[in-house]
Amino acid sequence: MSGTVSSAGPVRTPRRIPTRTPHQAVRAGNSAKKYGGSLAGIPWATPALGLVGVLLVYPFFRSAYGSLFQDNGFTSSYTGFDNYSRLADDPIFGRSVLNTLMWVIGTLLLPVLAGLLIAVATHRVRLGGWAQLVIVLPYAISGTATAVLWNFMLTSDGAVNQVLRGVGLDSLARPWLLEWPENTISMIVASTWQATGLNVVLFAIGLRAIPRETVEAAELDGATGWRMFRYVTLPQLRAVTVVVVGMAIVNSLKAFDMIWILTKGGPSRSSETLALTMYRETFRLFHVGYGSAIALVLSVIVVASSWLYLRRQMPSSGRD
Amino acid sequence: MRQAPKAPSRSSAGHALRNLFIVGCVLLWLVPVYLLLVNAMTPPTSYTGEPDWSPQGFALFDNLEVAWDQAGIGDSFLNSMLYATVCGLAAVVVAAMAAFAVVVLPIPKPSLWFWVIYSGTLFPLQIFLAPLFGMYADANLYDTRLGLMLVYAAWAVPFAFFLIRNQMTTMPPEVTEAAMLDGASFRRIFWRIHVPLMSSSLGAAFIFQFTAVWNDLLFGITLSRSPEVQPVMAALTTLNNAYSSSGPPVILAGALIVSLPTLLVFLVFRGLFLRGIAATAR
């Protein structure tokens, strides 16, 4: 293998970002006095804090507070946790949770698994980079445009049914977007087309970071094919897998554009996820407080899932 | 790499299977793109109601024109170009300043400020929408360009801040210390030392946030209504809702138009783009 190493050029290993608390170059000592003392950073951070504080952080707390009110956009009255207890009895919310769960599981099964397989299959293969590029391209397209394209594929006289009829599988052809659970499943497939590329890129980064020596040592021990993949490659990909899985879960929870274009959550609200239910309750039915309660539930789930991968890359807040 | 003489230890059947898998995936991914291109070329009048699998005439430019002019994609295209460019730039500058404050300058509780700013990208947009709508209605910002630009800039700051801050922590503090010994002001240190040294990170952050703003649908449909203000994805949604009347070729041409800028940015700046992705995966 040594012959190939020299021809491969420098092996790119990702530089690790030091996770120490950032070392303030300018300490609040004597030298800093003339620059404005220990608060010199405040004016520099103010524009960011102002924008984010007024337009994101404040609305967040306002939403959390608003979820305690019965609010139709004109009048509102305090009802405590009534909105939350209503969630438990609402069959639409139940269906929405089920659909959201399908999205999470489907996203883990399809784009993540496909991403891993494609990354491994194209790793160090001639023209593999081009194959990866083709699969990554949809990632640069918006969810809206992807949905418009897949509407063309999935609509009742669309391309998918045309193909199925063309190859004699008429019994499989169906109005994909008009029946549950087919609509949720086919939208997950459509989002697979778009989302897999990101996972391929991330897994490819992880694969390139595997030390050449590890692979060579395993080859000397006679590991090939499946055993190499299972006992060498996969364990080495653990770190990147955590990130991919975490991001995939969060993205599937946030999925909105695709569903809004393809089914608007319908028919009769059967394909709504939490992101859609919140939007419809708030802006179509004007149940603002109820919608805020759903938004808060969704946020808690999203942040909890983000924590999976975030704690790895955050500034040490409590580790040292 | 594959031609290396060491390869035969693996079975050639496995190789064939792997190549078949790759080719299959690539074809599967290309079929929708092919259908998009072919059907966006079909003249709307000769569209049969079912997707065409081979070119039926060449009316691509007519369809693009109809989508651009009559369906109003053109106006919102220019709107979105304004939003994405201005808000992307503003967010990168604001985020770089905040990163400078948190990493380099003396500031009490830097990690608290980090979390306050970064939290903006953690939550789903839904949690911001209802209060934003109310605030915008009260402040007469609903359905205005300024209103959308403010919210896009604010929304783009957190992730840009995250990327830039991570890169800034890898810069040796001695650089700043040396500049300070030479008597440089903070402003000078920021613009003359940090910004040039971080230019590729700043570029990656801009490209990411340009794409994010360009691709946004949810803020667009929530905080604006009139065609003169709406961003491009909202306009495409409106066009798509008229599926039967305007006909798939025009709609697909519209999808093509709105995808071109981000596709171009991605293809031209692929390195920077992948850098941004890689930075999230560390």
UniProtKB/TrEMBL annotation, chain A:
A GO term (biological process) for this protein? transmembrane transport
Superkingdom to which the source organism belongs: Bacteria
Q: Which residues cross the membrane?
A: 41-61, 101-121, 133-153, 185-207, 237-262, 288-310
Supply the InterPro entries for this chain.
MetI-like (IPR000515), MetI-like_sf (IPR035906), UgpAE/MalFG_permease (IPR050809)
| Keyword ATP-binding recorded | no
Q: What is its main location?
A: membrane
What are the alphabetically sorted keywords of the record? Cell membrane, Membrane, Transmembrane, Transmembrane helix, Transport
* UniProt membrane topology term: Multi-pass membrane protein
GO cellular component annotations of the record: plasma membrane
Renumbered to this chain, region (Disordered) spans 1-27
Q: Which Pfam families match?
A: BPD_transp_1
* Start and end residues of each ABC transmembrane type-1 domain: 97-309
Keyword Transport among record annotations: yes
Q: Where in the cell is it found?
A: Cell membrane
* PANTHER family attached to this UniProt entry: BLL4140 PROTEIN, DIACETYLCHITOBIOSE UPTAKE SYSTEM PERMEASE PROTEIN DASB
Q: Which family does it belong to?
A: Belongs to the binding-protein-dependent transport system permease family.
Name of the protein in question: Permease
Organism from which the protein derives: Wenjunlia vitaminophila (Streptomyces vitaminophilus)
Its organism's taxonomic lineage begins at: Bacteria, Bacillati, Actinomycetota, Actinomycetes, Kitasatosporales
From TrEMBL, chain B:
Source organism, top-level taxon: Bacteria
- Gene3D superfamilies xref list: MetI-like
Task: Report the Pfam families cross-referenced here.
Answer: BPD_transp_1 (PF00528)
Q: List where in the cell it is found.
A: Cell membrane
Q: Which InterPro entries match?
A: MetI-like, MetI-like_sf
Q: Which SUPFAM superfamilies would you find in this protein's record? A: MetI-like
What's the protein's topology in the membrane?
A: Multi-pass membrane protein
Q: Which family does it belong to?
A: Belongs to the binding-protein-dependent transport system permease family.
**Name of the molecule in the record:** ABC transporter permease
